[in-house]
Structure formats: C-alpha cells, structure tokens
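G.,

No rush on this.
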Amino acid sequence: MAELNEEYISDLRQAVVKAICEVSAQRQQSPAAGKGNTLYIGSAEVCQMLTILLSEFLEGVPGLDTPSEVRRMSDVVAKKIRLGIGEIRRHREETGGTPLPSIIIRGN
C-alpha cells in the first residue's frame, strides 16, 4: 500500500470540521462558528453523514463487489475507529485534556 500523505489528511480533516461547524452555526442562526457562543453540533447526524460519505467513497473501490469483501473492509474501518478512540483517550490522559462537552438531547 502506498504511503499516506499525512499533511493532506490533516488539511481534509480541518476542512470537514470547519464545514460541520459552519453548517451547525447557520442552522442555529449563530453569528458565526468560533465567535464564543455555544455551538450545538448534532453528533448523531455528523456520524451518520460521515458514514454515508465513507460509503460513497468506498463504493467505487475496486474489489468491493461481494458482501464478504464489503464485510472485510467494514472490519478494517471498525478496527481503525477502535484504535483511534483508544489513541485519543490515551492522549487525553497524558495531557490532562477532556473530551468535547456533549449533551444527549432526545426527542419527546
């Protein structure tokens, strides 16, 4: 597998986070993302969007033609998510950081 371009990955991640913040700010009619107001971001909706986006990008990957091939790819993605969460938690422990504040909001 070719070496991944970490700078490109970082730029993409920054752009996606910025877009999520901007759309969230527009939907709650905040003056702008990052202006000191509380910004409410729908975590469930963000995760759903990222899952759809990932599916759209993976759909065209050669070699994902059968359910078993898709399952193998899903297992790889799931492992990367598990490892990523563990890495983030270790980093937070080492640095004394805290997760983003979250509130679970459920409809009545």
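When you get to it, here's the other one too:
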Amino acid sequence: MVKRVKLDGILIRLVTCITLIFSPVIFAEELSTYSKFPKSSKTEVIPFPVEFASDITLNGIEELVFLPGMYKPEEEDFFSYAFSWTHKPEKGQVFQKSEIQEFIVAYYKGLYKAVSDGKEYEPAVTMEQADEEYTGQISWVEPFVTKKKQTLHFKGNQVYCEKINELRWYFLVSPQGSPHSVWDELQSIKPSNC
C-alpha cells in the first residue's frame, strides 16, 4: 500500500512536470494579450484561477511566452520569459501594490509545490512601484531543472482596457540582471492593444 501511494505521488509529479514543461509545445494556443514575440518562443494559455495557485483571486487567463533557453540552464536565456495576467475587474476594483506582491508570492509558491511533489517553499518577493510600473526580485528555488536557489528579476506594468473592461498585468522575468542582452529579447515581446 505504501509503495502504491509513493508511486502515485511520483506519477503525479511526473505528469505535472511534463505538462508544465512541454504543454507550450503541445497545446500552444493563440495569444490575445501579446502581438509580437520571437518566433522561436513557446507559448501557453492557462485559465485563471490556476490550479497550483488558487489563492490568486483573479478570474481570467494567464498567457506565457518562453524564450528558447527556458529549460536549458547552460543558456543565457534560461528561465527567461514573459507572462500576462488578464482579469475582468468588478466595477471600481483596484489592486494595491501589496496585493499584486501577494499574488506573485502565491504564484511562485504554488508553482514550486506543484513541481516539487508537494514540498513547501516560501519565495521572498521585493517589489517597487512607480505609477503603473513594477520592478522587483523573486528569491526562490528553481524546481524544474537545477533545483537550486535562484533570484529572478522582473519588470511589469498594469494596463486597464476600458472598452472591454479588462485589467492586464504584463511581466518580464529573468535570472539575468539588467542590462543584459536577454532583456533586449524580452522587451521585443510586445503587448497587444486593447
């Protein structure tokens, strides 16, 4: 009985890892929040709330654009990607910096747990905000490939699309600090117009 439970846990972890790593290749969908990105990138669309981070109370979609070296630690663009969160806000709903920071913590905590067979790890997130622009760092353990401590640098912004009542957060993420050529590639990923 114990062996079966352990095997089930291993199978669940394996399926989760394969889905998270290869679903951009297998299940790529057309993106609605990005209009331009490198042709060699992989993409993915996930409905919110995401299963591994149910504490994020957004109702919408997440779209991801992975640079080619996303899962190749020997590449300069390892773990470098863009993601957007799209949400249909209630009338007058505004999110404060602290709430967005909590969402980022919940997202990376849940992602780590989903890939690491249920192990817990609390990422440390620092974030600065100037108007609708965000910059910060995420300190966590990268669970997919290296399983080592990693600091991710991120830049983000918030856009409200009034015509369609849609709130979008756009993030660029990389372990490479700025300025690095990876950021030029990340900044070539262009949001679509509302």
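Helices lie at 2-26, 97-115, 181-187. The chain has one domain: 2-191.

Enjoy the weekend,
O.
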